[in-house]
Design a protein that fits this description.
about 200 residues, 2 domains, mainly alpha
């Protein structure tokens, strides 16, 4: 390990950052490591506490199910609320970030998991539309698979279908035979769409 401002860093990571990532970025190497050490010093304890809280919640959930926890959704929700795993939805709020890239501060990019009750997250196609706005993408936009919003909505409908999340910890062969083709279809559609977007965005002039 290599010491950088009190941090023990893997040599491969040091080489990558100092020889490839930082040169030309305008960020001084020493300044970067000093900042990283400061961030870790300020938040490491809080992060450790959050991880301990997560472990404690998981232990209570595991113990509850091992003791014969109910399969009824209402009972499950009541238990999760009681232990603090579920909390009341907060009131709407806004933030005003500064010195943050637009892709983080203002634009909702593609996300692997989104809250299905939040229409903005579920139907946001802003990032996709920015890619399709590139001249090279215009020709393929009409041939793309179903719009991202429709694909996401279809995936959410599948996810909330009774039986998709079985109560048993070991999946029976019939479950895999039933739902594997559905999952593969959704993944294929997503892959086809991503491939078309990347081909268009990265196409030469």
């Amino acid at each position: 390990m290599i010491d950088r401002h009190g941090l023990s860093v893997a040599p491969a990571l040091v080489r990558f950052l100092e020889e490839r990532a930082l040169p030309g970025s305008g960020v001084d190497t020493d300044h970067f490591w000093a900042g990283m050490a400061d961030v870790l010093a300020r938040f490491a304890a809080e992060n450790a506490a959050l991880l301990a809280r997560r472990d404690a919640l998981q232990t209570r959930i595991d113990d509850w199910y091992r003791a014969g926890g109910a399969q009824d959704g209402g009972v499950q929700r009541a238990f999760l609320t009681e232990i603090g795993y579920l909390t009341p939805e907060p009131e709407p709020f806004t933030i005003a970030p500064g010195s943050v890239d637009d892709e983080v501060a203002r634009l909702a990019g593609p996300q692997l998991v989104v809250p299905m009750l939040n229409d903005r997250h579920l139907s946001d196609d802003a990032y996709l539309q920015r890619l399709l706005a590139l001249p090279a993408a215009t020709a393929v936009s009409a041939a793309l698979p179903p719009p991202a919003a429709a694909w996401a909505q279809a995936s959410c409908k599948i996810a909330i279908t009774p039986g998709v999340y079985p109560s048993a910890h070991v999946l029976p062969a019939t479950y895999i035979a039933t739902y594997r083709p559905i999952a593969e279809t959704q993944l294929r559609i997503a892959g086809d769409r991503l491939a078309a977007i990347l081909n268009a965005a990265l196409a030469g002039p």
